[in-house]
Queue: 2 jobs
Job 1
Amino acid sequence: MPNPSQDIEHGTVTEADVVRVADARAVETEQAGYLHAEVVDALVGSGMLRRWVAKDLGGEAATVVDVLGTIERTSRADGATGWCVMIANATALCSHRLPEQWAATIYGDPAACTGGYGMPAATGRLVDGGIEVTGRWAWGSGTSHCTWIGGGVRIVGEDGEPAATRDGCVVPFVFFHPDDVELLDTWHVAGLKGTASTDYSVDKAFVPEGRWAQIFGQGPRLDGPLGRYPFFGALAAGVAAVTIGLAERAIDELVLLGPKRSAGSSRSLAERGAIQADLSLARANVAQARSYLYATADQVWADGDHGRDVTDEIRAELRLAATAAARRSLEAVTLCYHAAGGAAVYESNPLQRVFRDAQVAQSHGMIAPRTMEPLGRFAFGLETNTGLF
C-alpha cells in the first residue's frame, strides 16, 4: 500500500497536477483498492489533504466553500481520490480541537494525513496516563496512506459503566499510530473501490492522556470559523461535493459520446431529442445542487466568522442542502448513464465507474435519503435529536 515519499517537496504540486494524475491513474487505483502511490505523492505535495488544518500548525485553514471546490474538482477526475481528499480534510478539523501538544504532534508534519470513523464503535477503558482502547470500526477511508488513524470511542470505567476522561470527554475521537492498527481485508464493494474504506481494529491500544478530540458538543481549542463550524455539517457537505464532482464527470462523458451512433440508427446520441433533454436536466441538477450547498455552507461560515451562534436552524439547513445536493447529483449521473446506452456498461468507459461510485457515495450516513426524516421532523417543530446536525 502507498506511503507518502519522504523526500517530496511540499507545496510544489498544484491542484491541476493532482487532477491530471488522479485521472490518469483512476483505473489502477480502482483495481488496487487504494490510491495509486503517484496520486498519494501528488496529494501530499499539493497540501490538499490538509487544507482545513489550523494555521498555527502550518495548515491553510481554508474556507469551507474553497475546500468543497477542491473536493468537487478532484472527484470529477476520480471519485476515490476526491473521497480521500474529503475524509482527510474532515478529520483535519480535529486540529482545531485537539490539545495543543497533540495537535502539533499529529498535524505539525507537512506530510501529515488523518482519517477514520467518528462514531463510537470501540471501547476505551480509563487507565493510568490515558485510556486503553479495543474495538473495530468500518469505513476506514484512506487509512492505507494515513500518518495517524482515528476512531470514535465510548469511555467506560473499571466497572464497565459509562465514564468520562479527565477533560470530560465521553465519546472522544482518538488517534492511533498506524502501527497500533490492523487494517482488515473487507473492502470488496461496487463503487469507490480505490478509497480503501476497509474495516480496521485495535486491541488494547494505549492512547496517552489528551490524544483525542471531542467532536460532539465541546468547544474548540481555536475559536475561529473552522473551529466553530459544525463537524458533521462540514462532513456532509464534503460528501455532497464528491457527488457533484461525479455528476460533472458523468456529463463530460455523455458529451464525449455525443457523436456515437447506435447500430441501425442514422442519428447520433447528440441528435436525439430525448438525449438532449436528459443532458439539460442533468446539467440543471448539478447547478442547483452546487448553488444550494455552497450558499448554505457559506452562510454557516459567515455566522461563525462574525461571532454569531451557529444555530440548530442553520445546521439543519446545511444538512438538508448536502442531502439534496447528493440526491440531485445521483439523478444527474443516472440520467447520463442511461442516456449513453450500451457504451456505458463497458469498463473502458469511465461512466460505469462514475455510476457505481455515485451509488456508494449516496449510501454515506451523512447524506443518505434517511437523513430527510429528522430534518422534516425539525421543520415541523417536533422534538428532534439535533446532535448530528
Job 2
Amino acid sequence: MTTIPTATAAARPTTLAELRESGWTSRTVKEELRRNLVARLESGEDLFPGVLGYESTVIPSIVHAILAGHDMLFLGEKGQAKTRLMRHLADFLDEAIPHLDLPGCPVHEDPFRPITSMAKRHLAETPDHEVRIAWWSREDRYAERLAPGTRFADVVGDIDPARLVGGTSLSAEEVLHFGIVPRMHRGIFAMNELPDLDESVQVGLFNVLEERDVQIRGHPVRFDLDLLLVFSANPTTYNRSGKVIPQLKDRIGSTIATHYPRDRDLGIAITRQEAGLDLGGDHPVVVPPFMEEILEQLSIEARKSRLVDQASGVSARFGAANWRTMVASARARAIRLGERPGVPRISDLAHLGASAIGKLELDPLGHGEMSERQLLDALVAAAIREVFSEYVDEHGLDEIAGVFSEGVRIEVGDMLPSSHYAERLETVPAAWEKAFEVNSAADPAVRASCAEFVLAGLWATERISRSERHGRIRYES
C-alpha cells in the first residue's frame, strides 16, 4: 500500500488521473484497520489512550477481533467505556481516503470500486482527468446511533416517495433513500444498546452482516457494502430471550466483555481522569488519599450491594460525579473562609446526594422501603468503615469511645474553619493523636480532614453515634 502524503489537503490528488498516478490502491475497511493496527503494534504505541485497566483483558480481545476481521459486540454494564472503545476504533483508519466528488451520490464511492449505478455511469462516461476526487476524513468515517426509537428507515433506508411520484421506477436504485448504514459504506457504524433495537431493524442489520446487501420493503438492492459494524449491550438484556434475534447474534464475529476496575487504586485513577478537574489555579485543592479511597470504596460497595440493581450496574460516572462534588465543596469552603489549599473532609460527603442520587437504581426486590438517600448514607458508612480499618490501629479506639460516653460532644461541619479543629478535639486528645496516625502533615486543613476521618470512623464502626443538621455533624456517645 502506497502512503499518500496527508499533511496538507493541497498534497492530495484532486482528479482520478492524479489518483492513479499517485499509486494509491483500494483496501477494505477491515484491511485498513488491520494494517494500521499492525503498524501501531510494531511501533509500541498506546492503542487506546485514556482507557485504563483493560491492558490485559479487553484490549487483547479487540486486537484479536481486528486482526480476524470480525464485526464486534461490546458487552458490559453501564460506565465500562464501551462507547469510548468503539469510538477509538476510528483511530485505526487512515487519516483520509479518496472518494468520487459526485453531487447527489448517497455514498462516499471508492474511485476504483464503485457500488452505485450513478457512480458506475459517471466513471464510464467521464475521462479520468475530469473525474473529481475529494477526501473523506477519519473523524467523519465513524457514526453511531442509540437503539431506542431508531427506525428501519433511519438505519437501512426507505423508498423516497418524491422520487417515485417524479417518475422514477420502483425497480430503479435511484428511488431509494439510503439510511445511515449504507451511507457509512467504507466506514464504521456503531449501534448502542442493541437489545432495544426494533426486531425489523435487527433483521435489516442481519442482512448487512450476512450478505452485505440492503433490502428495503421487499425490494432487493445488491450493494457490495464495505463497513465495520460494532454494537454495545448490557449482559442482562442481551442474554434475555427474544431481545436480540438469534441470527444476528450468530453473525457477530467477536464479543468483547468489559468490566469495572479490578482494584481500588485503578478505580481511583479512572475516577480522577473522568472527573477531569484542575486541582490547581487560584483556589487549589489537595485531596487526602483516604478521601479518594472512601469515594472509590463507595462505588465498590454499591456494586456489591443487594439493595442496588446490579443488572443496571454502577457507572464510572457515579464516581466521577461524586469526586467533582467533593472537590467543589472543599473549594467553596476554602474560598469563603480564605483557606489555602482547600482539603476535602468527611462532612463534604453530605453533599453527594446531588451527584449520586439518580445514578443508583434500587433493586425492586431487595430495598424494601429504603429511599435512595438512605441507601447512599448506608453505602457511605460502609465505605468509611472499610477504609478506616485499613488506616487506623484498633488499639486505643475503645479508649476514645469511652471519653464520649462521659458526655463529650463534638460538632464539626463543612464550613468550620480548619484552625478550630484542634480546639474542638481538646476534650478528646486521643482522637487528635489518631488523626496524626492517619497523616502527620502539619497543614491545618489536612489535619482537620484527618480529624473528621477519625470521628467518622468511630461512628462507622459503631463506637459513637452522630446526627446531622444544616451542614453540621454532631458526634456523641
